[in-house]
Amino acid sequence: MADLDGVPWPPAPIRTPRLLLRRPAASDRDGVIELLCSEAATRYLGGPQSRADLSLTLPQGPTGRPGVFTIEANRQFVGTVSFDRRDASRPGHVRASGLEIEVSYAVLPDELGNGYGAEALAGALGWVAQVMPREPVVLCTQTANRASMRVAEQAGFLEVARFEEFDAEQWFGVRQPEGATA
Question: Which residues form the N-acetyltransferase domain (predicted)?
Answer without folding.
Answer: 19-177
